[in-house]
C-alpha cells in the first residue's frame, strides 16, 4: 500500500502541472518562412566563413609529399532551400540536397627539399544532408535541443591546381580525391552536432524571468516540453507577472485554454486573462494602484472645487459642519482589478474606494467619509493596420457609502455626476486613443503582417505573419 502511495505521490507534480498563462504556436508556414530567412542569412555569411587550414602528407611511393592548404575561401555556393518539417512528438527535421560549394585557396608542398606552391580550386558537388533536431525542455523550463539523427553524403569532388609545379601535382589528384571526400564528409555531422550542442548550452543559460519595468517582472519558463504536431509546434509558458519587490503568487490560478489554430498564419500567441490579472495583482499588492487627489489637480476652469462648499450641493450637511474647507481625496483599488475575456468582449471590473478628508489650516486631516465604487467597463478590441484599436464603454457603476464620520447622506447625485464625468470626459479621451490605434510592439527587425486579434472565453489570441528583414538585422 505504502509503496504504491509513494509512487502516486511522485507522479503528483505531473498530474497537477500548472496551466500555462501564455501559449505560442509556430505553424508549418512559419517554420518554412523561418528556414527560408535562415538559409538567406547563411548564404550571406558564407563570404565571411573561415575554413581551417589543412595539412597532411601523401605517400607517393618514392617518398612522402607534405602538403598544406591555406587561405581557403568559399568562392561560390549553391545553397538550395532546405526542406524543414515538423516531426510529430520529436522535433524538426532538416534535409538538403544538391548543395554545391567551390573553394579557392593556396597550396604548398614539400617533397624532400623541393618546395612548391600555387593556388587551387576545389568543388564539392551534390552534398546531401538530413538531420533531426529534437525539441524538449529542461527542469528549469528552458527550451532544449539535441541532434538525434544525422546523415550526410557527397556526390563528388573536383580539384584543380594552378601555378608552381602543379602539372606534376595535378595527376595525383585522383589518387587522394576519395581521401579528401571522406575527410569532408566525416566533418559534416560532427559539425552540426557541435553547432546544436553550442545552441543547447546557450539555451540552458537563457533567462526565464524578465524585468518588464521598475515595478514588474514576468516569468516565462516552459511548463511542458514543446508539443510538436505535423502542422505546428506549441510552447506553453508559465506567464506570471510578479511585483519587483514582492514575489508572491497571485491568489488565483490559470484555467486551461486551447489555441484556435490559425494555420494560414505563421505565429499565434494566446494570452490568458490569468496572465493579465497577475500583473494587476502585482500592482495592487504593491500598493501602486492609488492616487491622492487635491484641488490643484482639478482644472482651473472647473466650477466644481475640491472643498466643502462645492460638495455642499451633493452632501448638504458637509459645509454646515466644516465651512469652506479644502478637501483631499485618496482613491485606491480596494480589490485587484480584474480583466475577463468573453467571446469578442473584454470586461474590466474595478472596485475603488475613495477616502475624503478635510484639510485644516494647521495641515491636519479630518476624515469625512469613504465611498466605494464598483464599476464595470467593457471593450471591443481588434487589430487593423498592425495597430491595436477598439472602443470602451461604461457598463455599470454603483457608488455606496463605505463609512461616514459626518452622518448619512445620499449617493445618487454623486453617482450620476461620476457616470457623466466618465462617459463624457474620460471615455472619449480613451476612445480617441483607441480609435487612432496603438502600434503593436515591434521586435528589432521583425515586422508584423496580416495580424489579427480574437477574444475568446478566458484568453485573447493574436495571430500574425511576419516579415524579417536581414538588412536591419546586420546593423
Ligand atoms: C513604479 O512604482 C513607482 C512607485 O514605487 C511609481 O512612481 C512608478 O511610476 C512606477 N513605474 C511604473 C513603470 O509602473
Ligand atoms: C508580499 O505580498 C503579499 C500579498 O499582498 C503580502 O501578504 C506579503 O506580506 C508581502 N511581503 C512583503 C515582504 O512585502
Ligand atoms: C471652494 O469652492 C468654491 C466654488 O464652489 C469657491 O468659490 C471657493 O473659493 C472655494 N474655497 C476654497 C477655500 O478654495
Ligand atoms: C491642529 O488643530 C487641531 C484643533 O483644530 C488640534 O487638535 C491639533 O492638535 C492641531 N495639530 C497640530 C499639528 O498643530
Ligand atoms: C461589483 O458589481 C458586480 C456586478 O456588477 C458584482 O458581481 C460584484 O460582486 C461587485 N463587487 C463588489 C466588491 O461588490
Ligand atoms: C449593474 O449592477 C446592478 C447591481 O449590481 C446589476 O443588477 C446589473 O445587472 C448590472 N448591469 C450590468 C450591465 O452589469
Write up this protein.
By secondary structure, the chain is of the alpha+beta class. The chain is built from 9 helices and 22 strands. It has helices spanning 2-15, 28-45, 166-169, 173-205, 273-285, 308-311, 317-321, 412-436, 470-474; strands spanning 22-27, 54-59, 64-78, 83-87, 91-111, 114-137, 143-162, 209-213, 216-219, 227-228, 232-237, 240-243, 267-272, 290-294, 327-333, 338-342, 345-359, 365-384, 387-404, 438-439, 446-456, 459-468. Strands 14, 15, 16, 17, 18, 19 and 20 form a 7-stranded antiparallel β-sheet that branches. It has a 6-stranded antiparallel β-sheet with strand order 10-11-1-13-22-21. Strand 4 and strand 5 form a beta hairpin. The longest helix is centred in the middle third of the chain and has 33 residues, at 173-205. It is elongated and about 120 Å long. Bound molecules: 2-acetamido-2-deoxy-beta-D-glucopyranose (6 copies). Residues 360, 362, 364 line the site of one 2-acetamido-2-deoxy-beta-D-glucopyranose (NAG).
Amino acid at each position: 500500500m505504502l509503496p504504491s502511495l509513494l509512487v502516486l505521490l511522485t507522479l503528483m507534480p505531473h498530474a497537477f502541472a500548472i496551466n500555462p498563462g501564455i501559449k505560442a504556436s509556430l505553424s508549418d508556414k512559419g517554420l518554412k518562412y523561418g528556414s527560408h530567412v535562415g538559409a538567406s542569412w547563411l548564404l550571406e555569411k558564407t563570404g565571411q566563413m573561415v575554413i581551417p587550414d589543412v595539412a597532411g602528407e601523401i605517400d607517393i611511393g618514392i617518398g612522402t609529399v607534405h602538403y598544406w592548404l591555406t587561405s581557403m575561401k568559399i568562392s561560390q555556393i549553391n545553397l538550395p532551400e532546405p526542406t524543414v518539417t515538423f516531426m510529430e512528438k520529436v522535433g524538426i527535421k532538416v534535409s538538403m540536397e544538391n548543395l554545391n560549394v567551390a573553394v579557392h585557396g593556396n597550396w604548398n608542398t614539400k617533397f624532400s627539399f623541393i618546395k612548391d606552391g600555387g593556388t587551387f580550386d576545389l568543388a564539392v558537388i551534390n552534398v546531401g544532408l538530413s538531420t533531426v533536431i529534437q525539441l524538449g525542455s529542461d527542469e528549469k523550463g528552458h527550451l532544449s535541443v539535441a541532434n538525434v539523427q544525422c546523415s550526410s553524403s557527397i556526390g563528388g569532388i573536383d580539384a584543380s591546381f594552378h601555378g608552381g609545379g602543379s602539372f606534376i601535382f595535378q595527376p595525383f589528384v585522383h589518387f587522394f580525391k576519395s581521401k579528401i571526400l571522406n575527410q569532408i564528409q566525416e566533418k559534416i555531422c560532427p559539425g552540426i552536432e557541435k553547432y546544436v550542442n553550442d545552441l543547447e548550452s546557450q539555451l540552458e543559460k537563457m533567462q526565464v524571468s524578465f524585468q518588464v519595468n521598475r515595478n514588474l517582472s514576468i516569468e516565462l519558463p516552459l511548463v511542458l516540453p514543446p508539443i510538436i504536431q505535423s502542422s505546428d509546434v506549441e510552447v506553453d509558458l508559465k506567464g506570471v507577472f510578479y511585483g519587483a519587490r514582492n514575489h508572491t503568487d497571485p491568489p488565483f490560478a490559470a484555467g486551461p485554454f486551447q489555441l484556435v489554430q490559425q494555420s494560414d498564419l505563421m505565429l499565434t500567441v494566446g494570452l490568458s486573462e490569468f496572465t493579465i490579472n497577475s500583473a494587476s495583482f502585482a500592482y495592487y499588492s504593491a500598493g501602486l494602484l492609488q492616487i491622492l487627489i487635491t484641488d490643484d489637480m482639478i482644472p482651473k476652469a472647473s466650477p466644481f472645487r475640491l472643498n466643502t462648499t462645492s460638495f455642499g450641493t451633493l452632501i448638504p450637511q458637509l459645509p454646515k459642519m466644516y465651512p469652506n474647507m479644502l478637501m483631499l481625496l485618496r482613491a485606491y483599488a480596494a480589490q485587484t482589478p480584474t480583466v475577463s475575456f468573453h467571446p469578442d468582449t473584454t470586461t474590466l471590473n474595478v472596485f475603488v474606494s475613495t477616502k475624503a478628508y478635510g484639510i485644516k489650516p494647521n495641515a491636519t486631516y479630518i476624515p469625512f467619509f469613504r465611498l466605494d465604487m464598483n464599476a464595470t467597463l467593457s471593450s471591443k478590441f481588434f487589430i487593423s493596420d498592425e495597430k491595436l484599436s477598439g472602443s470602451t464603454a461604461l457598463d455599470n457603476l454603483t457608488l455606496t457609502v463605505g463609512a461616514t464620520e459626518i452622518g448619512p447622506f445620499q449617493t445618487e447625485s454623486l453617482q450620476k455626476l461620476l457616470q457623466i464625468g466618465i462617459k463624457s470626459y474620460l471615455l472619449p479621451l480613451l476612445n480617441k486613443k483607441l480609435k487612432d490605434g496603438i502600434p503593436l510592439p515591434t521586435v528589432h527587425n521583425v515586422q508584423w503582417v496580416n495580424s489579427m486579434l480574437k477574444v475568446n472565453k478566458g484568453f485573447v489570441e493574436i495571430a500574425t505573419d511576419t516579415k524579417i528583414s536581414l538588412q536591419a538585422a546586420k546593423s
